[in-house]
Write a structure and sequence with these properties.
The complex is a heterodimer of chains A (about 280) and B (about 325). The relative contact order of chain A is 0.16. Chain A has one domain (about 45-55, about 70-280): MetI-like fold, CATH 1.10.3720. In chain A, helix 2 (about 25-45) packs across helix 3 (about 75-110), helix 3 packs antiparallel against helix 9 (about 190-225) and helix 3 (about 75-110) packs parallel to helix 11 (about 255-280). The two termini of chain A are about 15 Å apart. With about 280 residues, chain A is mainly α. The longest helix of chain A is centred in the last third of the chain and has 37 residues, at about 190-225. Chain A has helices at about 10-20, 25-45, 75-110, 115-130, 135-145, 150-155, 160-170, 180-185, 190-225, 240-245, 255-280. With about 325 residues, chain B is mostly helical. Chain B is built from twelve helices and no strands. Classes of the chains: A mainly alpha (about 280), B mainly alpha (about 325). Chains A and B meet through helix 4, helix 5, helix 9 and helix 11 of A and helix 1, helix 6, helix 7, helix 10 and helix 11 of B. Chain A: This is Dipeptide transport system permease protein DppC. Chain A: One of its GO terms (biological process) is transmembrane transport. Chain A: It is found in: Cell membrane. Chain A: It is a multi-pass membrane protein.
Chain lengths: ~280, ~325
C-alpha cells in the first residue's frame, strides 16, 4: 500500500483552488442542493396533495390545473414527484449513513486489530460481497416486510461491505507505525487512537465512496419499489411511480418518463459530485 | 496451479456455506419467517399439522442440517406456493437467465473494451470526452427505466420489437423470433454494465501506453498498429478480466429487475415471485444458485489471470 505515506492535510486555500478547477462538480453539487431544497420546501410552493384524486381528470395530459398531468387515479403528477422525491432522496441519504457507519466500524475494527477479529469480520465481508446484493435485498424484504425503515437498513446493507474493504485497507496500513506505538505508550486507548488518529486519514476516501453510495442507494430503492417490494403505495416514491406507469405505456407514456428522469438526474449529480470530490480530496487519485 | 485451484475451491465452498447459513437462519429466525407464513388463518390443530409437515417443529439448527444434506443430494425442498420441487423450478429458469446474462456479458465485454481502447488512444480529445460522458450518464440511469423507455420507443412507438417474454406465444421455435425477444433486454442489461468496463479498459490502456516498453517499441519504429495490438492491448487485458469477474455479481443483481421489466421468465423473476409469495424454499434456492455462480466465475477469473499473464503463478 502506497498509503503508508500519510496524506498532508489539504490546506484551505489549496482546497478552494482545486474546487475551482471542477466547474462540473460544483454545478452538480448546486443541482443536488436544489433538489433537496425542492423536496423539502416543495409542498409550501406547490400545495397540492399527492394523494388527492381527481376522478374527472384521469391520465390527463400536462397543462391546466395539473402542470404535468395526472396518473391512473387522477392524482397530480407534480405533487407525487415532489413527495416521492422526499422519500427517494431521504432513503438514499439514510441508507448511505447506515452503510457508512457499518463499513467504518467493521472495516476499522478489522483493520486495526489482527488475528481472529480480523479473520471473522473480513470473512463476513467476503460473504456479503459474494451474494449479489439484490438477492440479499429480496431475502431481507421478504422476511422483514417493506416498512420504509427496513428498506433503509436493507439498502445500506447492500453497500457496507465495499466501504468496509476500503476502510480496512486504510486502517491496516497504519498497523505497527511508530506514531501508533507512541500513542499507545502514552496511554491512549485503542478507541482514541482509532477515532482521533487513524479515522481522519480515511475521511477523504470515505466521503467520496459515501457520495457515490447515495446515488447507488437511490437506484436500489427505486428498483426495489419498482418491483413492488420497496416503498408501498399510497406512499409515493420515484420507483413505485414507475411500477404503476408501466401498465399505461400505450395511454400515457410520459407517466413513465418523469420519475425516471428524476432518478437519473439525482443519481447523476451525486456521481458527478463524487467524481469531483475524488479529484479534490484524494491525494492519490 | 492445481493446489491453488483446489484451495480456492475449498474457500469458495466455505463462502457458500456461510451464505447459505446466513440466509437460512435469517429467514427462519425472523418474526415473519416460515412459521408465521404457514400460521395465517389456521386453527391450532391445523397449524400443528402443517408445522410437522414442513418440519417446523424441529430446532432451526436441525432444519438447517437437513436442508443442507438435501442440497448436497440436489434436493432443495418443495415450493410452498407451487408444490413443486425447488430444484426443478430453478433448473427451468436458469437457462433463460444464463441466456440473457451471457449475451449481455459478451455485448458489454466487446463494446466496453472497444470504447475503452478508443477513449485511451484519443485521450483528452473529443471521442474520449464523449465516451467518458456517456459512461457517467450510463452509471446514473436506472437500468429498469432504460428498459421501460426502450419499450416505449421500440415496441409502442415504432413497433419493431416485442416488449416481453422469451418467444411469441403459440409459435413454433424460430431463432429469429428468439433473437428479437432477446435483443432489447440484453442490450439494456449490457448498457448498465458498460460504464465500469469502459473505465477500467481506458485506464488500463493508458497505464500500459505510458510504460517504458511501449515507448521503446515506438522508438524502434514499429507501426502504431503493431504497438497497440501486440504490445499494449494484450497487457491491458488483465485488469479487464478482473472487472468482468466483479461484474457478474452486478449482472445477476441487474437481471432481477430487467427480467421483471421484460417479463423474462428467469431466476430473477422467480426470486421476485417467491419474495412476494413468501416462498422461503425458493428464495433460499435462488440465493444459493446466484452465490454459486458468482463463486465459480471468480474462480474462473483467477485461473484466466494466470493464463493471460505469465508473471502470475499461484504456486
Amino acid at each position: 500500500m502506497t498509503s503508508a505515506v500519510a496524506a498532508p492535510p489539504v490546506r484551505r486555500g489549496r482546497f478552494w483552488r482545486k474546487v475551482r478547477r471542477h466547474p462540473v462538480g460544483v454545478a452538480a453539487f448546486a443541482v443536488l442542493c436544489l433538489l433537496y431544497l425542492t423536496v423539502i420546501a416543495g409542498p409550501l410552493l406547490y400545495p397540492v396533495s399527492p394523494e388527492a384524486t381527481d376522478p374527472l381528470n384521469i391520465l390527463a395530459a400536462p397543462g391546466g390545473a395539473h402542470p404535468l398531468g395526472t396518473d391512473e387515479l387522477g392524482r397530480d403528477i407534480t405533487a407525487r414527484l415532489i413527495y416521492g422525491g422526499r422519500i427517494s432522496l431521504s432513503v438514499g441519504l439514510l441508507s448511505m449513513l447506515v452503510g457508512l457507519t457499518l463499513g467504518l466500524v467493521v472495516g476499522g475494527t478489522a483493520g486495526y486489530f489482527r488475528g481472529r477479529v480480523e479473520g471473522v469480520l473480513m470473512r463476513l465481508v467476503d460473504v456479503f460481497m459474494a451474494i449479489p446484493s439484490f438477492f440479499l435485498l429480496l431475502v431481507i424484504v421478504t422476511v422483514f416486510g417493506s416498512h420504509p425503515l427496513t428498506i433503509i437498513v436493507t439498502v445500506g446493507l447492500g453497500f457496507w461491505a465495499q466501504m468496509a474493504r476500503v476502510v480496512y485497507a486504510e486502517f491496516s496500513s497504519y498497523r505497527g507505525r511508530d506514531f501508533i506505538e507512541a500513542m499507545h505508550s502514552l496511554g491512549a486507548s485503542h478507541l482514541r487512537i482509532m477515532v482521533r488518529h487513524i479515522l481522519p486519514q480515511v475521511v477523504p476516501q470515505a466521503v467520496v465512496l459515501a457520495t457515490l453510495g447515495v446515488g447507488w442507494a437511490i437506484l436500489s430503492e427505486a428498483a426495489l419499489s419498482y418491483i413492488g417490494l420497496g416503498i408501498q403505495p399510497p406512499l409515493a416514491s420515484w420507483g413505485n411511480m414507475l411500477q404503476n406507469a408501466q401498465a399505461y405505456l400505450y395511454v400515457n407514456p410520459m407517466l413513465a418518463i418523469y420519475p425516471g428522469l428524476c432518478i437519473a438526474v439525482a443519481v447523476l449529480v451525486f456521481n458527478l459530485t463524487g467524481n469531483a470530490l475524488r479529484d479534490i480530496l484524494d491525494p492519490r487519485a | 496451479m492445481g493446489v491453488f485451484v483446489f484451495r480456492r475451491l475449498l474457500q469458495g465452498i466455505l463462502v457458500l456455506l456461510l451464505v447459505s447459513a446466513f440466509t437460512f437462519f435469517l429467514v427462519n429466525l425472523a418474526p415473519g419467517g416460515p412459521s408465521a407464513a404457514v400460521s395465517l388463518e389456521r386453527t391450532a390443530a391445523e397449524r400443528e399439522a402443517l408445522y410437522r409437515q414442513y418440519g417446523l417443529d424441529k430446532p432451526v439448527a436441525v432444519r438447517y442440517m437437513q436442508w443442507l444434506s438435501g442440497v448436497v443430494r440436489g434436493d432443495l425442498g418443495t415450493s410452498l406456493t407451487q408444490g413443486l420441487p425447488v430444484s426443478g423450478l430453478l433448473w427451468q429458469r436458469l437457462g433463460n437467465t444464463l441466456q440473457l446474462a451471457l449475451t449481455a456479458l459478451v455485448l458489454t465485454a466487446l463494446l466496453g473494451v472497444t470504447l475503452g481502447v478508443v477513449a485511451a488512444v484519443t485521450q483528452n480529445r473529443l471521442p474520449d470526452h464523449l465516451i467518458s460522458s456517456v459512461a457517467t450518464l450510463g452509471m446514473s440511469v436506472p437500468g429498469f427505466w432504460l428498459g421501460i423507455v426502450s419499450i416505449i420507443l421500440f415496441s409502442v412507438k415504432l413497433g419493431w420489437l416485442p416488449s416481453s417474454g422469451v418467444a411469441s406465444v403459440g409459435q413454433s421455435f424460430s431463432l429469429l423470433d428468439r433473437a428479437q425477444h432477446l435483443v432489447m433486454p440484453a442490450s439494456v442489461l449490457a448498457f448498465t454494465l458498460l460504464p465500469n468496463v469502459v473505465r477500467v479498459a481506458r485506464s488500463a490502456m493508458l497505464e500500459v501506453l505510458s510504460s517504458d516498453y511501449v515507448r521503446t517499441a515506438k522508438a524502434k519504429g514499429l507501426p502504431n498498429r503493431a504497438v497497440l495490438l501486440k504490445h499494449t492491448f494484450k497487457n491491458a487485458l488483465v485488469p479487464v478480466i478482473a472487472i468482468l469477474g466483479l461484474i457478474t455479481t452486478v449482472l445477476f443483481s441487474g437481471s432481477v429487475v430487467i427480467e421483471s421489466v421484460f417479463s423474462w421468465p428467469g431466476l430473477g423473476r422467480l426470486a421476485i415471485e417467491a419474495a412476494n409469495g413468501r416462498d422461503y424454499p425458493v428464495i433460499l434456492g435462488v440465493t444459493l444458485v446466484a452465490g454459486t455462480i458468482v463463486v465459480v466465475v471468480n474462480l474462473l477469473v483467477d485461473v484466466l489471470y494466470a493464463a493471460v499473464d505469465p508473471r502470475i503463478s499461484y504456486d
